[in-house]
Specification:
The structure is a single chain. By secondary structure, this protein is of the alpha+beta class. The chain contains eleven helices and 21 strands. It has three domains: about 170 residues, 2-Layer Sandwich (Bifunctional carbon monoxide dehydrogenase/acetyl-coa synthase(codh/acs), Chain M, domain 3), CATH 3.30.1650.10; about 220 residues, Bifunctional carbon monoxide dehydrogenase/acetyl-coa synthase(codh/acs), Chain M, domain 5 (3-Layer(aba) Sandwich), CATH 3.40.1470.10; about 50 residues, no CATH class. Helix 1 crosses helix 3 and helix 1 packs across helix 5.
Amino acid sequence: MSMFEDIPVDVGVIYEGERVRRNDMYVELGGPKQEHKFELVKAKGLDEIEDEKIIVIGPDIKDMEEGSTHPLGIYVEVAGKDVEEDLEGVIERRIHEYSNYIEGFMHLNQRYDIWLRLNKKSFQKGLNSFDIIGKVLLRLFKSELPFIEKIQITFITDPEKVREMWKETMEIYEARDAKARGMKDEEADAFYGCTLCQSFAPTHCCVITPQRYANCGAISWFDGRASARVDPKGPIFSIDKGECIDPFKGEYTGANAVLKEKTLGEVTQVWLYTAFDYPHTSCGCFEGIAFYIPEVDGLGIVHRAFDGTTVNGLPFSTMADSTAGGRQVDGFHGVSIEYMRSPKFLQVDDGWSRVVWMPSTIKERVKDFIPEEVVDKIATENDVKTVDELKVFLEEKEHPVVERWKAIPAEAVPEMKRKEAPMPTPVSVATVATMPVSVGGFKIILKDAKIHAKKVIIRAAEEEK
């Protein structure tokens, strides 16, 4: 008998990566419209929980209106003789994987960023209660992670209860993160890899080191070590560091070899501490994005919870599309909040001395880890709204990035003889698959771009004799 015969929808790995679009959505849980949402796993004693008990606090799915959005807390308590606190984050991250096994049920992100949707078809088939989702989760947890002897799951949708427990979970996350600080990558005997997000990003593999958290912010080096020990054939595994090719860039032969294997040859080289050339790949669950601002030769940072428009005119969602998918994209780099606290944070790119803009909320969270001489020189949405305003701000504050400008010639292109031939009629839209543009020593590649122009000028250029 299948463990899911009493479940009204299919359950299986074939549904991983399934997206539920807004038009197909019956209900949304968490997500960008809800400030308070979380998922938390806590280790308990065997006598502290009731095995396979499912609790719902607040409205159940069948009590929600079609098209509505609700706060959500998922609280999982586990017990077993081999269950320890170091495994909490690892078990927590599996909520993402196992939820996505459910037909028509989408789970994105982690921790305080969870975003879930249920589609209309699955609801109509009978997936109308958290009790059903809970049954799937607890069965998968116990079958996939046999060291879990008892499990109890609580779903919280009551806004006040979610808000109250959200505060506690944030403190728990912070305590976990702080544990990993202080250890150096050079001191680790191994790194750890994670492929939990490959259902959404097939060529992505996180390389987790003491000083570079997983992009999702949910798996530390200690979490990786604990997971690899109890589930060595699972999606989180040990990486033999191999030879250190470049300690400053963070390139290791072992990491390169594992990435080549896990991405089927798509990614063969990675530099762990940079957003350029061979940057770490990004999945889709990253907590934030480090993005290049060519007008000031600096980096901006935006986190998932920021619902405004960044200084370059783009919201998080737009830049996330350019960052995600397991690709190595120059200047669009998925990062975790904890990595921002690392001494190796983008050190190849000058680290915090290269960061010029970030939302005020995330700046407040990590300000104690930003060098004192730089922290007040990084602009936020409260200081500037446009790149032009940003330039003025950086000059007035004497941001370190201004020194970089002096190395770039005032004229990016040498003076040339030009013959202008304006087009006789306006061109409305030009669509190009790929367009390389070289300026100031940098090559910018526009992909799938639509260019609007009232006039196109063709210039034949000759160097001055």
